[in-house]
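Anyone up for a design puzzle?
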């Protein structure tokens, strides 16, 4: 069985995001202590409560800056795992607890008492566990998404025929072309219009027949998408998707109209061109 604590782990936050997270961590400590007033803080005067808890937030922020910017880059260079990361976080929390104890000692001019010293460390670990847990959840979610992206299945290979004959269900028709040159097909009543491109110029061919029959004749060429009851488009010529689910359209790389997408097909078509 794989030990999860030996699994490689690294946060990898950008410097700006790391600084923002440190500020948010310090803000959380201040707000949590000021609003909930645990550990006898409610016995102090309102002004003292505010200043004291603000001081805890500032001490926490200062300590995190030292650890995250000065010490952590050196400590986490090699073979950093989830287990080591948890121990490191525990060490940081304990250090913040020690700093908070000496902060209290200076404020209240008290002598060293082992009981309160240990209580200060335990308090820092207990209160800090909330934002740390949230941070780990966000970090794991980011790592998971990144792993999914890296392990994504490559796009399906597009298949082409060298030449295609489109009759659109009418034996009297005989349109021959390289399927790569077809930009899109559209239907109007009993006619199918085939729009092709050659040397940058668009051309149109009109056949009497149905788009459904033409779609069947194109099925071996996997780049073609039936995006609307009246349109089949060659995905190789799609530049991007515009609009929303109610009014989705395909913008082509070539000159020509935007191709409409039906509401039913909008989600699948949009996801294909992300």
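Challenge accepted. My sequence:
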């Amino acid at each position: 069985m794989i030990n999860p604590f030996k699994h490689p782990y690294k946060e990898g936050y950008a410097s700006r995001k790391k600084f923002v997270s440190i500020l948010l961590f310090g803000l959380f400590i201040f707000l949590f202590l000021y609003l909930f007033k645990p550990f006898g803080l409610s016995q102090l005067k309102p002004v003292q409560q505010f200043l004291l808890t603000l001081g805890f937030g500032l001490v926490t922020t200062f300590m995190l800056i030292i650890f995250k910017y000065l010490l952590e880059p050196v400590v986490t260079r090699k073979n950093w795992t989830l287990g080591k990361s948890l121990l490191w976080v525990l060490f940081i929390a304990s250090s913040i607890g020690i700093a908070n104890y000496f902060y209290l000692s200076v404020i209240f001019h008290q002598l060293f008492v082992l009981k309160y010293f240990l209580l200060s460390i335990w308090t820092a670990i207990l209160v800090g566990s909330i934002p740390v847990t949230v941070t780990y959840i966000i970090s794991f979610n980011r790592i998971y998404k990144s792993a999914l992206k890296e392990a994504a299945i490559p796009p399906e290979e597009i298949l082409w025929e060298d030449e295609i004959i489109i009759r659109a269900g009418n034996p009297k028709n005989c349109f021959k072309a390289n399927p790569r040159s077809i930009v899109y097909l559209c239907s109007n009543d009993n006619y199918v219009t085939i729009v092709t491109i050659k040397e940058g110029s668009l051309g149109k061919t009109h056949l009497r027949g149905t788009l459904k029959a033409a779609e069947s004749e194109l099925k071996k060429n996997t780049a073609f998408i039936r995006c609307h009851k009246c349109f089949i488009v060659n995905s190789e010529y799609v530049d991007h998707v515009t609009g929303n689910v109610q009014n989705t359209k395909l913008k082509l790389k070539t000159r020509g109209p935007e191709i409409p997408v039906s509401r039913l097909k909008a989600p699948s078509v949009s996801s294909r061109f992300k």
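A detail worth pointing out: The first strand starts at residue 164 and ends at 166.
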